[in-house]
Every structure is written in C-alpha cells, then in structure tokens.
Specification:
Elements (H helix, E strand, L loop, with lengths): L2 H57 L4 H4 L18 H13 L1 H12 L17
Helix pairs in contact: 3-4
Length: about 130
C-alpha cells in the first residue's frame, strides 16, 4: 500500500466519524441564528410601532372637543368645476382658442339649432 492511499483512507474515516457532530453543530447554529433574527425583527417592529404612534399622537388634535369644529380650508366654492379633470379643461380651452368657429357650431348644436349648410367640396377631377 502506498502512503497516499493510507492518508486518503484516514481522511475518509475521519470525515465519516466527524460528520454527525458537524451536522448537529450546523443544525444548532442555524436554530440559534434564526432565533436571533426573529428577536431583532421583533425589536425593529416595536421601534417602528413606537415611532408611528408618536407621529399619530403629534398629528392628532390637542382638544378632542374642538376636533369636530375644525375650520374648513378656504378656497373655491364646493362643486366649482371640481368634477372636470384638468387635462380636459386644458384641451377644451385649446380648442376654443384655435377654432372659435367650431365652438360656436358646437354651442349651437347643444341648443338644438340646425347645423349650418356646408359648401360642396371640389372633386379631384375638376381641380387642375
């Protein structure tokens, strides 16, 4: 037998006998590290809850009796073009600016008036 074969057999036997202890150590270490992570996460959750409670406490009215009588924000009257989106209002303004005749036609149609007569378009055969 050669020396390298004996060393190989010795290492295999050593690993074979040490494997259960290595496995048990890995399992116990994993359990302890998992428990430590859970404790850290719980403490972070507690700190976050306390911080949010402080924010809510600071934002709450100081006197609950006056909370119902809070002053309304001053600005436009309720219902004054709040239902129209700003994009549609801008588009309508642009159409009125660029094509005032179309706006008059559209308002006449809304009032029930007949559409104005259109001039016949020249055909391609006659033009030229």
């Amino acid at each position: 037998m050669t020396v390298s074969f004996r060393v190989g057999r010795y290492l295999v036997a050593l690993l074979w006998h040490a494997f259960p202890y290595l496995f048990i150590g890995f399992a116990v270490g994993s359990i302890f590290s998992t428990l430590q992570v859970v404790k850290v996460m719980e403490s972070v959750d507690d700190y976050f809850y306390q911080a949010m409670a402080k924010v809510v406490h600071q934002c709450a009215p100081s006197d609950p009796a006056n909370a119902a009588d809070a002053e309304q924000v001053k600005g436009r009257a309720p219902g004054s073009s709040d239902h129209a989106s700003p994009i549609r209002r801008t588009e309508a303004r642009a159409e009125r600016t660029l094509d005032p005749a179309r706006t008059a036609t559209a308002s006449a149609r809304e009032c029930g008036a007949a559409p104005p007569p259109r001039a016949p378009e020249p055909s391609a055969a006659r033009v030229g």
